[in-house]
């Protein structure tokens, strides 16, 4: 299990040995590591499906996160190759990507609150650098803003850990949960610790009203970094940690559910509305991400296994379609040099493959059957309805329509509209960006088609937690 | 909680809170990027103090120290990268005042 | 008594650091606060942590800040001073606020010791770090490497 952390780290070290020529393998090594991780995680999930559950291996949720991380890193690394031309910087990127992968895996595999913090910071540092990678003013500023806000969030997280240490004498998930459920502690102290930790993690997840750093970071970062950020980092650093902390430590607290419901619904609606008015493609996608993460939180807040399963599947689906959209954005930016939607009007007609994959991503994001996004949104809405939150379920469906709205508008304007003056000639992007787009599109369609065939027991194993 | 810790407890928590508030104030109220980092450092010191207290008071001084040492190392990396970002921004704009530098909308 | 004095000195130095008009003074205030903090940590039974705090925070980080401050010459010194003078008028706010928070927290936390559990036998730091928290150590290695690569990425000029 620790191999997920140690192997990428070892690879990062090996690739930087002062042996001539080895440096150039950095990017390839990172790509291979991500591929291997995806395959192994998928194999583990397949095992689960057949009912074989191995002791000591990561549980359902962690396996899904590992698979998602592998897939998103593959997409991001391939896109990065097209955008980062200089060989030295490519190898630095590869080394950092390996470290980032190790960090993300560490967050997902940690069984101790403080260990989770250490790996959160490790992944965060890698991404501060990634956002600032092109060294342009916008990227540097966005990275700094993210750094400060993430730092304050970390302080809250640490305060909560400190309070728990005081109250229970331990920082591991098992230790704390045992002490909390043994009772006899002053409830208020544990609640205070929980509040601190949750506030910190909500900032990291970019949910409203703690989303201040997100639109800038996603839009100013190089497109390939946004692929990684939107696809895996924010979700791991925020949502996964929230789930682990809530369930493993505090049990399903009624009050926590209500907080998550409020935060979730506000994020879903407000971010969708904000996305409507955006001119910059990446900024629009950033707000869209906040909205989708709101859906995930709603699923979790519903509290039923159905909701949790829906949330976990949506984590995967969102990673796939959002990464695909950002890869498309990278393609447009690479060929046209801009991310401004009005300026791109009609130019996408010359990029048929990008357009096609973009349509698939949009439909999945809006929850149109038979694509992947439909299933996870359906599960979440059903879970909300059956848990009694009828109004919220209706609002969630409504926001889905909004999502379809702004995404389809972008799609139509860029890829299908006929501009008044003929736009400058533009070729379809090279294989480097097309390949990840095609891979992700295949996954979007594949999940959508395969999902109803999955046995129900598989979904339930996702919601079990490691012994 | 051991009696020496109990005597110190309120004072240390108060000091940690005061440090945190000062650090946060500095972070929010300044226009100078480096000062923002100094404020962040002070904030982290507040948390460090609190963690040491947690280790001391719960009797687990080994665990507490391990946490603090790891925390210090981790934050060094963060601050180092942050300072580099400030340097790079300075190269661009010849200034580290947020009025000149900040043009990212909310 | 000594401890209370040290804690007060710590908070005062931090406030001085925040309010100082000159950046160098601010950094020196931070360094001094780190030194006092390390003494406080030492007196709370955490000698190893105290050494780290002293060497890393009071030493390394302060040296880093001083060198960066030296590199970054405030280009419009007059302008910076003007702005700070305007802020000085509001500066009495911070000590009041910090003191206020301190007092409130002090009063609240005076009740806490009775709620919290009794102490447990302590283990040696070294044993804890190297045996129980191996993953943390690996994490530290990752983050330090990431920092090094990151600095290279951000600062290294292209070799023309």
Topology:
The complex is a heterotrimer of chains A (about 475), B (about 110) and C (about 160).
Chain A: H1 3-15, H2 26-49, H3 60-83, H4 87-109, H5 113-131, H6 137-168, H7 173-181, H8 187-205, H9 214-220, H10 223-250, H11 254-276, H12 281-302, H13 305-336, H14 341-344, H15 352-366, H16 372-386, H17 390-416, H18 431-450, H19 456-463
Chain B: H1 3-29, H2 33-57, H3 61-93, H4 98-101
Helix pairs in contact in B: 1-2, 2-3
Chain C: H1 2-19, H2 23-43, H3 47-71, H4 77-88, H5 93-109, H6 125-132, H7 134-155
Summarize the structure.
The complex is a heterotrimer of chains A (467), B (106) and C (160). By secondary structure, chain A is mainly α.
Give an account of the 3D structure.
The complex is a heterotrimer of chains A (467), B (106) and C (160). With 467 residues, chain A is mostly helical. In chain A, helix 5 packs antiparallel against helix 10. Chain A has a domain of 202 residues. Chain A is 78% helix and 0% strand. The model of chain A has no long low-confidence stretch (mean pLDDT 82). Chain B has one domain: Helix Hairpins. Chain B has four helices and no strands. In chain B, 75% of the residues are buried. By secondary structure, chain C is mostly helical. Chain C folds into two domains: 101 residues; 37 residues. Chain C is built from seven helices and no strands. The longest helix of chain C is centred in the middle third of the chain and has 25 residues. The radius of gyration of chain C is 21 Å and the shape is flat. At the B-C interface, helix 1, helix 2 and helix 3 of B face helix 1, helix 2, helix 3, helix 4 and helix 5 of C.
Q: What fraction of residues of chain B sit in β-strands?
A: under 5%
Q: How many extended strands of chain B?
A: 0
Q: What gross morphology of chain C would you assign?
A: flat
Characterize the largest beta sheet of chain C: strand count, sense, and whether it forms a barrel.
none
Instruction: Tell me the series of helices and strands of chain B, N- to C-terminal.
Output: HHHH
Number of strands of chain C: 0
Helix content of chain C: over 70%
Radius of gyration of chain B: 17 Å
Shape of chain B: elongated
Distance between the termini of chain B: 46 Å
Mean pLDDT score of chain C, rounded? 79
Helix- and strand-based class of chain C?
A: mainly alpha
Name the chain pair with the biggest interface and residue counts per chain: B-C, 70 and 81 residues
Count of structural domains of chain C? 2
